[in-house]
Amino acid sequence: MRIFTVDSFTDQAFRGNPAAVCLLEAPATDAWMQAVAAEMRHSETAFVMGEEGSRHSLRWFTPAVEVALCGHATLATAHVLYSLGASGRLEFATRSGVLTTDQAGDGLIAMDFPAKRATAAEAPDGLVEALGVKPVWVGRSQFDLLVEVESAEAVRSAAPDFDRLAAVDTRGVIVTAPGDGTSADFVSRFFAPRAGVPEDPVTGSAHCVLSPYWSDKLGRDRLVGEQVSERGGTVRTTLRGDRVELAGHAVTIWSGELHI
Fold first, then answer.
1. In 3D, which of 220, 200, 239 has the Cα closest to residue 63?
2. DSSP assignment letter at 124
3. Most CB atoms closer than 10 Å: which of 11, 106, 120, 210?
4. What's this model's pTM, rounded to 2 decimal places?
5. Which residues are catalytic?
6. What is the tens place of the pLDDT at every residue in 228-250?
């Protein structure tokens, strides 16, 4: 079966967030998909299989666990399908319900995802010490903790203790701050050592939380987020009630055949 590596949320090779995309020819076992994801060693590997027409089933695995929502691997999957001849609206049946993608012009792919609002919460024991940054605000969404800090520079310079952070009861931790004069409205980084991903380069699902948070604070539905990891990437967000559109570019790095 065919397998690809795609850099998501970037229009440049070797930037953004790499994801593997495996085009299944028949249903596969959870153990087999987990083994492939561990072999690929990307933060997520997507497994997609056509059902009928433009409808597909889609699942995502880190090297360690299956996850319920992943933006960059969905973007990578749609990019692969469009490059193979698909067009227009695609539907994906996932653990987070039906997600859709569409071609948005200028090479952008737009994805319709659920908004995941964070509500104010006490910082869990060990969080501040593990992050090594002082929070301005802490909240909890369905999957992750959201931590606003005082500046974009504080986000960039954060150096978490991943062993200590893995002990905090959450899928991941989003650290964010307002943009600092670039084209971005806000910046962020995403740490998920508990899920086998110490730092994710660009995280679509985190922007399901960041979009409503910063839209409420800035008073605008359309925003640009920059994830300031070492690789970096850009996510364009549009809040629409309880849904959020995430848009970005993607670049295929290689494709081949999986023989096992």
1. 200
2. P
3. 210
4. 0.93
5. 44
6. 999 999 999 999 999 999 999 99
